[in-house]
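Example 4.3 (complexes with small molecules)
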Amino acid sequence: MLTLALSKGRIFDDTLPLLARAGISVVEDPETTRKLILQSNRPDLRVVLVRASDVPTYVRYGGADLGVAGLDVLLEADATLGGDGLYRPVDLGIARCRLSVATPQGFDYAHAVRQGARLRVATKYVHLAREHFAAKGVHVDLVKLYGSMELAPLIGLADAIVDLVSSGGTLKANGLIEVEAIMDISARLIVNQAAFKTKTATLKPLVDNLRAAAASNVSIPA
Ligand code: ATP
Ligand code: MG
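Answer. The structure with magnesium ion bound is encoded below.
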């Protein structure tokens, strides 16, 4: 039995077409069922639904043999779990966005950076944010939040946020502007290393099929 870890929403929705190209369909719809284990059309493959940030944990500890996780989640998990135990064989090219710094429209970020000001930055991605600002030599106090980061500068909780941006619509709606792109993000296939050795006969073809499906999926808009 192979277990694939996915999160509901964007990751699940964007992974389905790739699975379809690999001949796999998921029997239930995560938006309507309350089940957390979904059967597929293949008796030897099931999908487990977990929080996006828990996907690397499930795969790392063998609760799932493979999973799909955003690079943001994956790199942030590396900082706490360590990068060992996970293969990342395929950039699936789905759930594309970027990790960026955003500030209120009136805030002169470049000036603050030049002045060596100490910035208060709210983010869910404290490790990635710390690395980014350390590399730039910017002093920051990081405030960890779990969501609605856009609110923090509006309320005076932070000068800036580090968050995912795709269209920029959410930032704009909250009077924020993207002042610096940190990195491009897309979802990655991740595989438990031990499982890849013990279940090679079933796992390797699946990984190869998903790689081929992702490669022929280049037309998906960012
Ligand atoms: P949770 O709901 O558990 O807090 P989440 O909000 O991170 O998790 P999603 O919003 O489904 O869950 O995001 C899952 C992944 O999709 C992210 O880790 C990121 O890689 C990608 N993603 C997030 N926001 C966007 C976006 N606006 N455009 C494209 N991809 C995105
Ligand atoms: Mg989200």
